[in-house]
Amino acid sequence: MITKDNYITAHFKDNERKTIEVILKDDEQTKVSIVSGSRLAFFSHFGQLVLINDFEVSFLEEFNHNANQNIYILNSNKDWLITFEKNTEEQFNLAVNYEFGQLGSVQDISKAVSYYTKAAEQGLPDSQMNLAEYYSRDNVGNFKEAIKWYEKCKDTEFKGKFQLGLLVHRGTGIDQDKSRGLRLLREAADEGDHDTKIDLADYLSYLMSDQDTTMTNEDFSDEIDQLTNDVIENGSDEFLHLTGVDYAMSGDWHKARPLIEKASSRSYPDAMVALASMYMNGYGGLEQDFNEAKRLLSEAIDLGSEHAKTMLDAIDYRPYEE
């Protein structure tokens, strides 16, 4: 029988961050083999850990379903007590590995969902968010389950709160509540990053368009301008440039131009190149102006932009206008 009197306790953290408590006989040097993470490990009573080979992950799974399991492993004539402590982060990592088929795991969505669920039920916001996003996928479409998990993570995950706001406002998987939906969306934008503010501005623009099916019939113009101006004034040059280019690629030059112009005015080379391209082609309401394009490209070259040099070489045959 194992007692605290005739065994000593050692704690280990293996390379997969699973905490393992090993109770070992004090007066013997017998080694015990245990499953530690996804590897076979050997412990001696001196506390030395030797990882010798990869072990079947399926074997590990038998010991990963519940928290704080006491597992007896026979070692010839001795019993060894191993305690696997609850580790929601490890369950989350296993889920990610199965979802994307990485780190030696074969892609298995059902196992990924199973592990996300285990960690989510123990309160891990990242798992709750990933689980909600999974149930929101078009090929899954279980919006009631998605809402359940968005509700649980909304206070710690502003992106989850934003997605919940969209579902509530649209009445997708839940009774429509436009007032609560907008409140959630605005809270998420206040708590979140510039991407979330842009997403809210885009959604409000959509609500004012002919495509809207929620029958909101409100004028959000001032709010949209406020959100956009906030992003323009406080967003990083890289963010403004990339967001502006995204708008440009979708043909929305009205939204693209102020973002690119702002980043360009701060001498961000990539934005200067993008603005030069707009002048070359007369996009975004700008008159075609090769002189201005060349000026922007020359300044971008001075700032180290190779792309600008390539573009300037391509249009160098056009002289500056007097």
What does this structure look like?
- This protein is α+β, with helices and mostly antiparallel strands.
- It has helices at residues 57-61, 88-100, 109-121, 125-136, 143-153, 158-170, 178-191, 194-207, 221-234, 237-249, 253-265, 269-281, 290-302, 306-315; strands spanning 7-13, 19-25, 32-36, 39-43, 49-54, 69-75, 78-84.
- The protein contains 14 helices and 7 strands.
- A 4-stranded antiparallel sheet has the order 1-2-7-6, with no helix packed on it. It has a 3-stranded antiparallel sheet with strand order 3-4-5.
- α3 (109-121) crosses α4, α8 packs antiparallel against α9 (221-234) and α11 packs across α12 (269-281).
- It is globular, with a radius of gyration of 29 Å.
Short description:
The protein is 53% helix and 14% strand. By secondary structure, the protein is an alpha+beta fold. The N and C termini lie far apart (98 Å).
- The average pLDDT is 77
Poorly predicted runs? 1-86
Q: Tell how many strands the DSSP assignment holds.
A: 7
Strand order of the largest sheet: 1-2-7-6
Question: Whole-Å distance between the termini?
Answer: 98 Å
Q: The biggest beta sheet, please?
A: 4 strands, antiparallel
Shape: globular
Portion of residues in beta strands equals 5-15%
Evaluate the radius of gyration: 29 Å
Helix fraction, binned, reads 40-55%
- Helix and strand pattern: EEEEEHEEHHHHHHHHHHHHH
- Based on secondary structure, the structural category is alpha+beta
Q: How many individual helices?
A: 14
